[in-house]
C-alpha cells in the first residue's frame, strides 16, 4: 500500500489532483502522440490523455486515490505504472521512458517516483488516509494532524476556556499559526469550499474540536508560497477532501470510550480525580449505487461527554471577609501588619467593610485548597470546585459521485455538525449554555472538452453559528436583582486586580448570537499547451454575518482589595463603570460583504529539469456593510464628541481595489536524476477586511445601542450611584461607547518567500531543509479601548504619565474600540523534515522548526486574541509594542510513526490469531514555551480606560539573566528580578511614589511605564507523547475486528501554561501580588487512556 505524507507534487485549489509528465524513448527524445490511460483502482473510472508535440501530457482534477497509468504508442511496448497515489489538490509528476517493441507487449513498472517535489515552489505536505485513520487523536479531531508539518503550531492552549464568551467570539476550532500568520488568516477548505467559521477561524464545535476522522480521505497543508489559484488568505491553507464511495461496499461501526478510572491525576486536581465519561460512537458506509458510475458515502459520529474539571480561582480570604487586612505580616520595606479595614464610605461596625459591599462577598466561594487558604499577606486564598462540562454532539456526512458521461463527472457533499454544552462560569455562580452548529454543501462538475482542455465548476454554501446564554444560577445570589447596579439587573461583573473577579449574574450573561452564511462559486479552467500548464479561473463569495453581542449589563473595576488609598473594593472606592442603559434596544446586526477573485497560473516547463511557476491573482472585497446602515465610527480618536459620530455604511474606505498579487517560483533538478530538487519563490497575499472584524464591537456602539462609561467615580458609589452618574452622562450623550475606525486604511498585504532543498536519501526516505520568511504590511491593530490618557512626553522615552488625574483623548466619549491598519509583522523560519514513506510495514516522519514571529499586536477578531494578550496596547507607540508575537514558538519538533509489527506467516491456528495484525503508532511533540508579559495590576499610570495596565522594571544580568525558574511551578517567575518603576533625576519631581499597603516607597514612580515590555518572558515548554496499540483480527475475507488502546501524554508529563493570571507581579499600590509568578493551569491533560472497538468491512 502506497502512503504519501509529503507529496512530490504541487497544489491547486480544486479538490482533485493532476497527473502530468514527459514521455521519452531510451535516447531521451520526446514521443508525441502517446496515449495515456489513467484508471482509478477503486471506481474503475478511466481518464485519457495524449502526449503533445513537446512530449508532455496532463490530466487535471482527478479524484484523489490510487491509479494504474498505461502508456501506449505505435512502435513501443505498452508500459503500465501501477500504484500511483494522487493526493488532494496536488500535481503529481510521472515521467516515463518507453521501450521499443510491439504495442501488444506489456512492460510493468513497479518503482515508485521519488518523493521529491519537481514542479513547483509551494511549501506544504499531505496527510494521507492511513495517517488520519490510525494515529492517536485526543478528541478525534483530524485538524490536529496539520501540526505534523513544519511551520505549523497549535495555539489552542493559550485561548480562552471553551465555555467562556471570549472563546465563543474567537471561534471553537483548533486555532493554528502557519508560518507566523495569525490564526484568522488561514483558509480551511473541504471539497473545495471554504469552511471558516464566523470568526474566520477553523471549523469546530463547542467541544473545541472538528469531528470527521472517518469522513476525511486526506488533506493537504500549504504553509508558504502557494500558487495563484488560492485566495482569501495570507496564512496557510488546510485543504481536505471527503471519502467517496467505490465499487465495493465498505464501512465501519465503532465506539471510543474514555473513563476517569484509567486516567492520571492532573497537577491541580484534588486527591480524587473528577469524574470523566466520554462515549464517541458512529458508523460509515460507502459503495456503488450503479457500478462504475454512481457511488455514495455516508458517515455519522456522535459524542456524549461528562467531563469534570478541577477549577481553582483566587478569592478573598476568610480574614479579609472579616475585615482583617494583611493577616499574615509582611516584614521589610513596603510590608504590612494586620489591621482592620478603614476608610470605608459606609463601614459595617463589626468588620469595617462598606455595607454596600458586604453582600457581594458571598458571590465568591470560601478558600478550600489545603495549604492555600491564605496566600502572601493573607488577603487571598484559593477556591477549588469541580466544573462539570456536559456536551452532546452529532456529526454527519453524505457524499454522492456520479459519472454523467465519459466527459462529465459531478459530485455533491453535505456535512453538518450540531453541539450543545453546559458548564459553570469561572466563579461557579452561573451555569452557562453554549450551542454551536456548522454545515456546508459542495457541488462540483467537471467537463472534459479534450485531453488538453478541462473545466471545473463548483458552488457551495458554508454556514456556522453560535449561541450562548445563562441557564440558571448555581449561587442564588447570582440571580438577585437587589445586587444590580441598574434597575432589574442582578450583580455586575466585578474586577478587583490583580486577579479577583466575579462574572455577571444570570440575567447579565451575554446572550451571544453569531450566524454566518457564505455563498460561494468557483470556476477553474485547465489548459495544456506544449510546455505550458495553464490554469485560470474566478472565485466569488458572499458573506452574511448576523450577530448579536450585547455587552454585559455592567462591569465595575476597583484598584485593590482593601487599600482605601488605591480604590479598595472593601472600602467601596470604584474607579470606573461600564454598563448599557436598561432602555437600550436589543438589535441583531446584519453585516454583508462580497469577495471577487480571478487568477491565471502558468507552470512553465522550460526544461525537463526546470519549471517556472508564474501566477497573478486579483482579489478585492467590498467593505463590510450593515443592511440597515447600523454602523458608526468616529473620524478621529482625538477631541471627539457624540456629534462627530459618522453613521452609515461608509465609515471607512475600501483599500482592496489594487489587490494584484504576483506569485513567482521555480523548481530545479540539478542532478537530472529526479532525486534532488532546489526550489524557491516569492508571493504576495492580501488580508481582506471581512465582516468578522466588526462582529464584536460594532454590535455595542452608539447610537444604535447605548453603552456608557463613568470614570473617576466617587467613594461609596457602588453599586447604584455609579450607574446613576453613568445614566446622567448618557442622557447628554456623554460617555457612550463609540469606536474609532481608521477612515482611509492602507492595503493590508503579506509578502512571503522561501528557498528549500529536497533530497531522496534512500528509496522511500526523503529529507528537506527550507528557509521560509514573510513580512506583513499595514496589518490590523485592534484595541478594546484607546480613549486613554496620553503620556506627558509623547513618544520619547521614558514614558511618564501625569501625576494628577489626566484627561482621556476624547473625554466626552466612553469606551473607544479601534481598528487601525498601522501594524507590521515579521517571520523567519528554518524548517527541516525527514520522512520515510510506508515500506516494510513502517513509516516515520520528523519535522523541526526554528522560527521567530514578531509583531505589534495580534488582534483581529479581538484585541486580546489569546489569554496571554494585552487587550489595549498603546496605539500611539507602535514601535514600543513591537515584540515576539503572542503565538511565537521558537523551537518545535514533532515525530509521528506507524509500525505494523511483523509476524511469521508459517504460524497457524491460535498462535497466528494472537500474533498477527498488531500495529504501534504515536506522536511526539517537543516545543519551547510561549511568551507573556509581566504587569503591574490596576491602573497605576492613570490611563482611565477599560483595560489599563503597567509594566514593572526588569533587572538583567547575573541570576536574572533568565527571569524564570522552570522547575518551580509555585515561583516560576523570579519576582526578585523585577522591581517597581524607579524615578530618575530628570523626572523625579513629576513622579508619584507607590505606597505598598499604605507605606510610601520613596524613589518609586507609579506613573512611569517600566522597562519590561510586551512578551518579555517565555512560559514553560511542552513535552507530549501520545501512543496507540492496535490489534486487527480478520474474520473471513471481508470483516476486520479492530481493538484500539490509545494513551495521551503517556508519560504523564505536566505541561504548564504560562502564568496567565499570576503574571501580575505588583498590585496597583505597589505591593507584591501574593501569587505572583505561580503557574495556574496546564496546556495538556494528564495521562488519559482511550479504548475503542471497530468493525471494519
Folded structure, characterized:
The protein has 1097 residues and is mostly beta strands. Among the domains are: 9-120, Carboxypeptidase-like, regulatory domain (Immunoglobulin-like, Sandwich), CATH 2.60.40.1120; 896-1096, no CATH class. Helix content is 3%, strand content 43%. The chain contains 5 helices and 57 strands. The strands form 11 sheets. The protein has a 22-stranded antiparallel barrel. A hairpin with a 3-residue loop joins strand 19 (276-290) and strand 20 (294-316). The chain is globular, with a radius of gyration of 31 Å.
**How many beta-strand segments?**
57
Question: What percentage of amino acids are in beta strands?
Answer: 35-45%
Overall pLDDT score: 90
The SS-based structural class is: mainly beta
Instruction: List low-pLDDT spans.
Output: 1-12
Helical content, roughly? under 10%
Q: Largest sheet, described in full?
A: 22 strands, antiparallel, barrel
- Tell me the span between the first and last alpha carbons: 18 Å
What is the molecular shape? globular
> How large is the count of helical segments?
5
Radius of gyration: 31 Å
List the keywords.
1097 residues; disordered N terminus; 22-stranded antiparallel beta barrel; single chain; 3% helix; mainly beta; Immunoglobulin-like
Per-chain topology:
Layout: E1 9-11, E2 17-24, E3 35-40, E4 46-50, E5 56-62, E6 65-73, E7 76-86, E8 90-93, E9 96-97, E10 106-109, E11 123-127, H1 129-134, E12 152-154, H2 165-170, E13 176-178, E14 187-190, E15 193-194, E16 216-224, E17 237-242, E18 250-259, E19 276-290, E20 294-316, H3 318-321, E21 324-325, E22 339-340, E23 380-405, E24 408-424, E25 430-450, E26 453-473, E27 493-496, E28 500-502, E29 513-529, E30 532-548, E31 555-557, E32 576-580, E33 589-607, E34 610-621, E35 625-626, E36 632-633, E37 646-647, E38 660-668, E39 676-686, E40 707-710, H4 720-731, E41 740-741, E42 749-762, E43 765-783, E44 818-839, E45 842-855, E46 883-884, E47 891-900, H5 909-915, E48 918-927, E49 931-932, E50 935-936, E51 953-954, E52 978-979, E53 1017-1018, E54 1022-1035, E55 1039-1048, E56 1064-1066, E57 1088-1096
Parallel strand pairs: 2-8, 2-9, 7-10, 14-17, 27-31, 41-44, 50-56
Antiparallel strand pairs: 1-8, 2-5, 3-4, 3-6, 6-7, 11-16, 12-13, 14-15, 16-17, 18-19, 18-57, 19-20, 20-23, 21-22, 23-24, 24-25, 25-26, 26-29, 27-28, 29-30, 30-33, 31-32, 32-40, 33-34, 33-35, 34-38, 36-37, 38-39, 39-42, 42-43, 43-44, 44-45, 45-46, 45-47, 47-48, 48-54, 49-53, 51-52, 54-55, 55-57
Amino acid at each position: 500500500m502506497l502512503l504519501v505524507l509529503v507529496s512530490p507534487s504541487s497544489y491547486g485549489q480544486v479538490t482533485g489532483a493532476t497527473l502530468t509528465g514527459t514521455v521519452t524513448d531510451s535516447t531521451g527524445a520526446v514521443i508525441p502522440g502517446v496515449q495515456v490511460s489513467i484508471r482509478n483502482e477503486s471506481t474503475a473510472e478511466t481518464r485519457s490523455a495524449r502526449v503533445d508535440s513537446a512530449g508532455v501530457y496532463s490530466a487535471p482534477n482527478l479524484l484523489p486515490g490510487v491509479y494504474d497509468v498505461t502508456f501506449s504508442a505505435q512502435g513501443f511496448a505498452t508500459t503500465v505504472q501501477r500504484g500511483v497515489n494522487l493526493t488532494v489538490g496536488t500535481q503529481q509528476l510521472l515521467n516515463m521512458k518507453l521501450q521499443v517493441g510491439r504495442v501488444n507487449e506489456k512492460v510493468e513498472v513497479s518503482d515508485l517516483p521519488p518523493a521529491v517535489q519537481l514542479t513547483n515552489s509551494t511549501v506544504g505536505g499531505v496527510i494521507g488516509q492511513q495517517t488520519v485513520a490510525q494515529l492517536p487523536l485526543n478528541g478525534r479531531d483530524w485538524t490536529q494532524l496539520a501540526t505534523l508539518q513544519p511551520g505549523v503550531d497549535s495555539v489552542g492552549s493559550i485561548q480562552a476556556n471553551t465555555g467562556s464568551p471570549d472563546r465563543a467570539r474567537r471561534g471553537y476550532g483548533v486555532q493554528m499559526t502557519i508560518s507566523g500568520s495569525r490564526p484568522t488568516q488561514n483558509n480551511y477548505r473541504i471539497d473545495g469550499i471554504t469552511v471558516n467559521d464566523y470568526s474566520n477561524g477553523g471549523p469546530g464545535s463547542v467541544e473545541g474540536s472538528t469531528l470527521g476522522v472517518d469522513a476525511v480521505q486526506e488533506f493537504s497543508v500549504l504553509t508558504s508560497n502557494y500558487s495563484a489559484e488560492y485566495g482569501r488568505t495570507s496564512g496557510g491553507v488546510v485543504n481536505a477532501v471527503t471519502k467517496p464511495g467505490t465499487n465495493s461496499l465498505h464501512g465501519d461501526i465503532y465506539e471510543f470510550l474514555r473513563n476517569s478510572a484509567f486516567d492520571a491525576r492532573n497537577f491541580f486536581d484534588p486527591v480524587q480525580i473528577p469524574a470523566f465519561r466520554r462515549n464517541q460512537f458512529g458508523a460509515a458506509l460507502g459503495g456503488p449505487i450503479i457500478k462504475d458510475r454512481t457511488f455514495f458515502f455516508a458517515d455519522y459520529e456522535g459524542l456524549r461527554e461528562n467531563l469534570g474539571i478541577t477549577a481553582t480561582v483566587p478569592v478573598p480570604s476568610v480574614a479579609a471577609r472579616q475585615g482583617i487586612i494583611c493577616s499574615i505580616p509582611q516584614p521589610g520595606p513596603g510590608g504590612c501588619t494586620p489591621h482592620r479595614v478603614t476608610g470605608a464610605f459606609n463601614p459595617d461596625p463589626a468588620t469595617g467593610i462598606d455595607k454596600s459591599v458586604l453582600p457581594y462577598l458571598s458571590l465568591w466561594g470560601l478558600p478550600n485548597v489545603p495549604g492555600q487558604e491564605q496566600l502572601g499577606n493573607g488577603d487571598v486564598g484559593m477556591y477549588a470546585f469541580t466544573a462539570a462540562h456536559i456536551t452532546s454532539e452529532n456529526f454527519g456526512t453524505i457524499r454522492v459521485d456520479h459519472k454523467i458521461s465519459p466527459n462529465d463527472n459531478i459530485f455533491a457533499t453535505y456535512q453538518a455538525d450540531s453541539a450543545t454544552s453546559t458548564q459553570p462560569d469561572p466563579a461557579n455562580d452561573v451555569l452557562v449554555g453554549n450551542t454551536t452548529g456548522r454545515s456546508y454543501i459542495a457541488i462540483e462538475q467537471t467537463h472534459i472538452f479534450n485531453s488538453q482542455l478541462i473545466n471545473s465548476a463548483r458552488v457551495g454554501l458554508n454556514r456556522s453559528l453560535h449561541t450562548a446564554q445563562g441557564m440558571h444560577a448555581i449561587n442564588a445570589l447570582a440571580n438577585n436583582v437587589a445586587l444590580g447596579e441598574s434597575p432589574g439587573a442582578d450583580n455586575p461583573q466585578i474586577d478587583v486586580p490583580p486577579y479577583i473577579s466575579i462574572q455577571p449574574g444570570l440575567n447579565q450573561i451575554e446572550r451571544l448570537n453569531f450566524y454566518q452564511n457564505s455563498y460561494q462559486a468557483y470556476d477553474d479552467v485547465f489548459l495544456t499547451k506544449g510546455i505550458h500548464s495553464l490554469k485560470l479561473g474566478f472565485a466569488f463569495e458572499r458573506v452574511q454575518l448576523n450577530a448579536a453581542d450585547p455587552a454585559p449589563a455592567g462591569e465595575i473595576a476597583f484598584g485593590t482589595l482593601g487599600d482605601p488609598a488605591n480604590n479598595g473594593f472593601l472600602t467601596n472606592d470604584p474607579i470606573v463603570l461600564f454598563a448599557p442603559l436598561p432602555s437600550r434596544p436589543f438589535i441583531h446586526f446584519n453585516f454583508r460583504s462580497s469577495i471577487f477573485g480571478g487568477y491565471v497560473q502558468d507552470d512553465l516547463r522550460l526544461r525537463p529539469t526546470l519549471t517556472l511557476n508564474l501566477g497573478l491573482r486579483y482579489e478585492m472585497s467590498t467593505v463590510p456593510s450593515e443592511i440597515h446602515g447600523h454602523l458608526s465610527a468616529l473620524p478621529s480618536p482625538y477631541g471627539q464628541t457624540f456629534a462627530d459620530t459618522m453613521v452609515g455604511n461608509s465609515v471607512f474606505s475600501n483599500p482592496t481595489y489594487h489587490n494584484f498579487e504576483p506569485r513567482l517560483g521555480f523548481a530545479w533538478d540539478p542532478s537530472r536524476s529526479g532525486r534532488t530538487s532546489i526550489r524557491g519563490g516569492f508571493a504576495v497575499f492580501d488580508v481582506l477586511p471581512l465582516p468578522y472584524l466588526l462582529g464584536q464591537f460594532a454590535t455595542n456602539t452608539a447610537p444604535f445601542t447605548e453603552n456608557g462609561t463613568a470614570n473617576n467615580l466617587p467613594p461609596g458609589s457602588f453599586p447604584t450611584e455609579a450607574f446613576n452618574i453613568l445614566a446622567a452622562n448618557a442622557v447628554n450623550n456623554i460617555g457612550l461607547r463609540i469606536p474609532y475606525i481608521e477612515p482611509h486604511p492602507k492595503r493590508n498585504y503579506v509578502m512571503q518567500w522561501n528557498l528549500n532543498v529536497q533530497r531522496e536519501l534512500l528509496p522511500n526516505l526523503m529529507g528537506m531543509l527550507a528557509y521560509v520568511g514573510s513580512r506583513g504590511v499595514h496589518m490590523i491593530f485592534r484595541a478594546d479601548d484607546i480613549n486613554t490618557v496620553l503620556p506627558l512626553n509623547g513618544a520619547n522615552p521614558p514614558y511618564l504619565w501625569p501625576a494628577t488625574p489626566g484627561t482621556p483623548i476624547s473625554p466626552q466619549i466612553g469606551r473607544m474600540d479601534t481598528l487601525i491598519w498601522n501594524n507590521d509583522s515579521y517571520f523567519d523560519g528554518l524548517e527541516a523534515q525527514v520522512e520515510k514513506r510506508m515500506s516494510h510495514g513502517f513509516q516515520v516522519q520528523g519535522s523541526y522548526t526554528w522560527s521567530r514571529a514578531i509583531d505589534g499586536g495580534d488582534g483581529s477578531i479581538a484585541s486580546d486574541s489569546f489569554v496571554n494578550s494585552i487587550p489595549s496596547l498603546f496605539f500611539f507607540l507602535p514601535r514600543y509594542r513591537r515584540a515576539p508575537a503572542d503565538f511565537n514558538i521558537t523551537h518545535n519538533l514533532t515525530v509521528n510513526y506507524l509500525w505494523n509489527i511483523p509476524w511469521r506467516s508459517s504460524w497457524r491456528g491460535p498462535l497466528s490469531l494472537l500474533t498477527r495484525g498488531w500495529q504501534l503508532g504515536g506522536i511526539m511533540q517537543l516545543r519551547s514555551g510561549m511568551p507573556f508579559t509581566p504587569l503591574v495590576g490596576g491602573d497605576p499610570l492613570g490611563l482611565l480606560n477599560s483595560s489599563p495596565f503597567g509594566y514593572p522594571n526588569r533587572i538583567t544580568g547575573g541570576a536574572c539573566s533568565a527571569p524564570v525558574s522552570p522547575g518551580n511551578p509555585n515561583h516560576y517567575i523570579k519576582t526578585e528580578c523585577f522591581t517597581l518603576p524607579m524615578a530618575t533625576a530628570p523626572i523625579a519631581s513629576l513622579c508619584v511614589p507607590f505606597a505598598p499597603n499604605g507605606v510610601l516607597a520613596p524613589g518609586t514612580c507609579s506613573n512611569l511605564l517600566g522597562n519590561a515590555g510586551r512578551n518579555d518572558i517565555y512560559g514553560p515548554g511542552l513535552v507530549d507523547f501520545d501512543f496507540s496499540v492496535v490489534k486487527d483480527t480478520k474474520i473471513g475475507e471481508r470483516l476486520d475486528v479492530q481493538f484500539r488502546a490509545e494513551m495521551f501524554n503517556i508519560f504523564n508529563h505536566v505541561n504548564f501554561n504560562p502564568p496567565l493570571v499570576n503574571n501580575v507581579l505588583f498590585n496597583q499600590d505597589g505591593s507584591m501580588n501574593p501569587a505572583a509568578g505561580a503557574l495556574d493551569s496546564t496546556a495538556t491533560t494528564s495521562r488519559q487512556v482511550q479504548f475503542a472497538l471497530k468493525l471494519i468491512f
